[in-house]
Amino acid sequence: MQQTVTFKIPDSFEFQTLIAEIAKNFSIKLEPLANQRQIYYDTFDWRLYNNTIILIRQGNEYLLLSLPTEEIIQKLDWKSKRQPKFWWDFPDNYLKNELKKYLDVRALIPLFEIEKNVTSMRILNEDAKTVLRVYLERIFFADNKKKSNFVDTIKLMPLKGYGKEFIQFKNYLNRSGIKGESLDVYSLALQKASKTPGDYSSKLNITLTPNMTARRATKIILRYLLQVMKQNQAGIKDDIDTEFLHDFRVAMRRTRSALTQIKGILSKTKKVQFRDDFASLGKSTNRMRDLDVYLLKKFHYQQMLPENLRSGLDPLFDKLAEERTVEHKNLVKLLESDSYKKIIASWDSFLNADNENEKTKNSHKPIIALAKKFIYKKYDQVINLGSKINDGSPASKLHQLRIECKKLRYLLEFFSSLFPQEHISILIKQLKKLQDNLGDYNDLSIQQQNLKTYLVTITPENVDSLESAASVGGLISALYQRQQSVRKLFAQTFANFSNPTNAELYQKLFAD
Amino acid sequence: MSIIACYHIKGGVGKTAATVNLSYLAAQESTKTLLIDIDPQGSASYYFRVRSSQKLTTKALLTGDNKIDKHIKATDYENLDILPSNLSYRKLDLRLNNLRKSKKRLQQILHPFEEEYRIIFIDSPPNITLVSENIFFAADILLVPIIPTTLSILTFEKLFQFFEDQNLDKSKMFAFFSMVERRKKLHQEIMEKIYAEKKHRFLKSYIPYTVDIENMGIHREPVLCYKPNSLASQSYRELWNELRTIIS
User: Fold this and answer.
1) Which of A32-46, A145-159, B83-97, B227-241 is the least confident region?
2) DSSP-assigned states of every residue in chain B
3) Chain A residues closer than 8 Å to B76 by CB
4) Which chain B residues are within 8 Å of A121, Cβ to Cβ?
5) Chain B residues near residue A72 by CB distance under 8 angstroms
6) Which of B71, B74, B220 sits opposite A159 (nearest CB)?
7) Are A160 and B50 an interchain contact pair (Cβ–Cβ within 8 Å)?
8) A355 contacts: CB under 8 Å, gap ≥ 6
């Protein structure tokens, strides 16, 4: 089936004359002029755009459209007082399900607003059946005060089974001088609003070349990570969603990891200073992240309990939410503090200073040699640690392995551009499975500990607190059960990771 | 995907009018809806001003794969498409007879539409034939319009018996009263009796006999479009609300 096309109408055309001309050649039905205001939404990391869709709000309607044709995928008519932010804010509906798939925990952010004057027209056949929908639109960009900032378009929306009529009309327009490439209104509006799709992604996107000096390459990595931290600051302060802080923390952790793992690049004093600065910064955001994770898990936790115990968790979550409000205030204070600004500023100037001449042990070696060496060494370490773990090993061994796996993961990601992409993807995928197992085990253990700490604070004063204690107790045992089954899966997961094919690939890529 | 087939052993019971208006209501709720007009008379297609494609023959319909897709046409209403009828459908029975698994054929043919459509309405031809048996098999809901007369009830009993004899799933059968004339005492009495008996599953909503529905042939659109506030439109809305709860 044909897709919707939008042509820009040349300035020389008047809408009314154009409509009159069309009416001379086709049987049409005109609908009254309508005024539409549309707000476009996406997440900070462009999750909708990356899936070639977009959400717009038009009066009381929410429309999920496919790009670039802007064909409607889902529509929701919903009068809401509050602006929905997350997928779970929407009423149960197909639109909600679609959004859930794409948004996950990210918030919708308004990108820009446009205003349209729309004349709708139907082209009819001899049975007075609609065979094509045509929309003449004057689209105003940005704020409506600047009425001069507009474009006139004609949009043809073909109907299934009436392809011939669509082509016939399109040809007619072409002959009249309305032609060219289909206009992508969304891209044009983004441009007018000075927004660049894909300008943020939580994935590392670093391009290095094999013969770069190690210091230059390391600085590229570190500058990229600093950029990510800066990009997320505003979102943390405005408390848009939990992922700003998460990405901020990951960038900081990666920075620390790069500082310690890419050895012999920076002077020792500088390295220690910044590593410690970021470590203490990271530490002061720990509690906030923990709280975010718990609150996101609320529904999940409730599902783990029998229905009559679910409400018993409410006091816990109320308490966590309260604590989060306080933590967030502290976090904003921290980000606005002089000490924080000083750390970032000195890190920034350090990364941008020209110190190519200062030599340290590895600073002037080609990055490829170091990348191979560090990755292979870390891989070796992971294999060694993991092979010693059996069903009876203590949790501390798994913890240690988890930390080393994380370091290996970061190294693979830092240097991925130096190696064949398809190979790195396989390795990361394999490693991720192992990390997921270890991560789940660790998370489940911490969650139990925290719940036990909370349990002690419940005083048996009344029936409510008794119920609450029962719920928390139930949750702890459910988490324990889950942790046991995750632990059982470790042996097989590690065996998959350390299989000969994977080992061979590590050897082929990194062992010299 | 839910498949709702509107069926009655005999014609002229308000079957097509119901299919047309109900499918329109489904589509109004942003639900991608397909109406399949299997009745060779093609009344549903006529109401939507859609002419059948000459190439959409019985053979094309039965060979399945996605070729049917080419013949689907958009109606004038968002989210509502129609697979128009074709005169050659009157030979559908003969064709089916020559095929293996002749009773499950339609179900197979509809399978590929699952991705695109959430609800499929079928306007079925009357009589108990191999075609209707295919529909009984494929449908999730068999919607049976019944005029409240003694004979109509008897015909319905026959259909019920047929389901029993053939070991078909009776739980998909939902009847509703159609072309009801409130002035007629007989209509009222029969309806009261049937509702009280609770022997068969009857929907609470019923469709009155009104000139607005009769006029669909002149307007060639759902009554909900040209007389949205009429009793007829209101009745279809109620019927749809009831049906929607059953689907979900």
Assistant:
1) B83-97
2) -EEEEE--SSS-SSHHHHHHHHHHHHHHTT--EEEEE--TT-HHHHHTT-PPPTT--HHHHHT-GGGGGGG-EE-SSTTEEEE---GGGGGHHHHHHTSTTTTSHHHHHHGGGGTT-SEEEEE--SSSSHHHHHHHHH-SEEEEEE-SSHHHHHHHHHHHHHHHHTT--GGGEEEEE-SB-TT-HHHHHHHHHHHHH--S-B-S---B--HHHHTHHHHTS-HHHH-TTSHHHHHHHHHHHHHHHHH-
3) 122, 129-130
4) none
5) 78
6) B74
7) no
8) A215
Q: Is the ipTM of this complex over 0.90?
A: no
Domains of chain B, first to last: 2-247 (3.40.50.300)
Asked if A122's CB is within 8 angstroms of B72's CB, the reply is no
pTM: 0.81
CB nearest B49 (choices: A75, A129, A160) = A129
User: Which of B32, B33, B49 should one mutate to test binding to chain A, selecting the residue with the greatest count of A CBs within 10 A?
Assistant: B49
Check CB contact under 8 Å for B73 and A161.
yes
Which pLDDT does position B43 carry in this prediction?
92
Cα of A188 to nearest chain B Cα, Å: 27
Confidence of residue A174 (pLDDT cuts 50, 70, 90): very high
**In this complex, is the C-beta atom of A129 within 8 Å of any C-beta atom belonging to chain B?**
yes
Contact B42, B11 (CB under 8 A): no
Chain A nearest C-alpha distance from B70 (Å): 7
pLDDT at A148: 64
pLDDT grade, residue A145 (50/70/90)? low
Mean pLDDT of A242-271: 93
Hey, are the CB atoms on B76 and A160 less than 8 Å from each other?
A: no
- pLDDT of B64 reads 57
Distance of CA A233 to CAs A213, A243, A388, A431, B213, Å? 31, 11, 42, 30, 63
pLDDT band (50, 70, 90) for residue B127: confident
What's chain B's average pLDDT? Answer: 89
Give contacts of B48 with chain A, Cβ < 8 Å: 129
Q: What confidence tens digit (pLDDT) does each residue in B186-226 have?
A: 999 999 999 998 888 999 999 999 999 999 999 999 999 99
